[in-house]
Amino acid sequence: MRFAKGHGTENDFVILPDPDGELELTEETVRLLCDRRAGLGGDGILRVVRTSARGEALLPAARTGERPEWFMDYRNADGSVAEMCGNGIRVFARYLLHAGLVSGDRFEIGTRDGAKQVTVEEDGQITIDMGRVEMQGSSSAKLARQVVHGAQISVGNPHLACEVSGPISGVDLSEPPVLDPEAFPEGANVEVYGHVGPGTLQMRVFERGSGETRSCGTGIVAAASAATPAGEGATWKVRVPGGECTVLLDASGARLRGPAVIVAEGETCLA
């Protein structure tokens, strides 16, 4: 099995080129590949497959009205399927460029949350049009040593973004958060964030299906949205343990900008 490895602000992924959709990607295989001791190690899997090889319909592309050529089949490290991944799609875009599968500085990628527009910036960073962020009210979560309250948000996948007082380094994310099952029947990513300067947030995240990660792109968007007064636009720098991303919010939705790096390619016999 061919693979590549990449990361976006140290949220890392195993990339599996499978253009014709021939791989049998079981939960067990995903868990093994993502295992940091017995496998290649990663927060998730990005399977690179042509949309024509998939049996399920996709939402129309945002601008062209046509189906994108490439689909990001994203799996969490525990083998579960996820709707969207903000860092993962930047890494996916970087891999498409690296492998010569797309050209130019603007193209679209299919996801389970519909087609996402990609823009490659002059400085090499990648911007993803994340679409509209859905604010769904408020909820709470029990962490290992405290209860946190925050905004229930959909960024194509479910989030609970919680502003906390005091250093976010003191929040214990070592155990899976306990969520309201009525609010989050399929679980959610939980973000804790705080203001560290004008237009700047600091954030940590416990990702559904992966645990605490160094970064989460959709979580970064969720935290920025939670910190923005209703009806207003804003630009936020969001610092995570793995680096920094920029979120641009306006009436059309959210855009996420940040780095994406391919660090290795090779073959594995794990599967």
TrEMBL record:
<dbReference type="GO" id="GO:0005829">
    <property type="term" value="C:cytosol"/>
</dbReference>
<comment type="function">
    <text>Catalyzes the stereoinversion of LL-2,6-diaminopimelate (L,L-DAP) to meso-diaminopimelate (meso-DAP), a precursor of L-lysine and an essential component of the bacterial peptidoglycan.</text>
</comment>
<protein>
    <recommendedName>
        <fullName>Diaminopimelate epimerase</fullName>
        <ecNumber>5.1.1.7</ecNumber>
    </recommendedName>
</protein>
<feature type="binding site">
    <location>
        <begin position="207"/>
        <end position="208"/>
    </location>
    <ligand>
        <name>substrate</name>
    </ligand>
</feature>
<dbReference type="InterPro" id="IPR018510">
    <property type="entry name" value="DAP_epimerase_AS"/>
</dbReference>
<feature type="binding site">
    <location>
        <position position="157"/>
    </location>
    <ligand>
        <name>substrate</name>
    </ligand>
</feature>
<feature type="active site" description="Proton acceptor">
    <location>
        <position position="216"/>
    </location>
</feature>
<dbReference type="GO" id="GO:0008837">
    <property type="term" value="F:diaminopimelate epimerase activity"/>
</dbReference>
<dbReference type="InterPro" id="IPR001653">
    <property type="entry name" value="DAP_epimerase_DapF"/>
</dbReference>
<feature type="binding site">
    <location>
        <begin position="217"/>
        <end position="218"/>
    </location>
    <ligand>
        <name>substrate</name>
    </ligand>
</feature>
<feature type="binding site">
    <location>
        <position position="76"/>
    </location>
    <ligand>
        <name>substrate</name>
    </ligand>
</feature>
<keyword id="KW-0963">Cytoplasm</keyword>
<feature type="site" description="Could be important to modulate the pK values of the two catalytic cysteine residues">
    <location>
        <position position="159"/>
    </location>
</feature>
<comment type="pathway">
    <text>Amino-acid biosynthesis; L-lysine biosynthesis via DAP pathway; DL-2,6-diaminopimelate from LL-2,6-diaminopimelate: step 1/1.</text>
</comment>
<dbReference type="GO" id="GO:0009089">
    <property type="term" value="P:lysine biosynthetic process via diaminopimelate"/>
</dbReference>
<keyword id="KW-0028">Amino-acid biosynthesis</keyword>
<keyword id="KW-0457">Lysine biosynthesis</keyword>
<keyword id="KW-0413">Isomerase</keyword>
<feature type="active site" description="Proton donor">
    <location>
        <position position="85"/>
    </location>
</feature>
<dbReference type="Pfam" id="PF01678">
    <property type="entry name" value="DAP_epimerase"/>
</dbReference>
<feature type="active site">
    <location>
        <position position="85"/>
    </location>
</feature>
<feature type="binding site">
    <location>
        <position position="189"/>
    </location>
    <ligand>
        <name>substrate</name>
    </ligand>
</feature>
<feature type="site" description="Could be important to modulate the pK values of the two catalytic cysteine residues">
    <location>
        <position position="207"/>
    </location>
</feature>
<comment type="subunit">
    <text>Homodimer.</text>
</comment>
<comment type="similarity">
    <text>Belongs to the diaminopimelate epimerase family.</text>
</comment>
<feature type="binding site">
    <location>
        <position position="11"/>
    </location>
    <ligand>
        <name>substrate</name>
    </ligand>
</feature>
<feature type="binding site">
    <location>
        <begin position="86"/>
        <end position="87"/>
    </location>
    <ligand>
        <name>substrate</name>
    </ligand>
</feature>
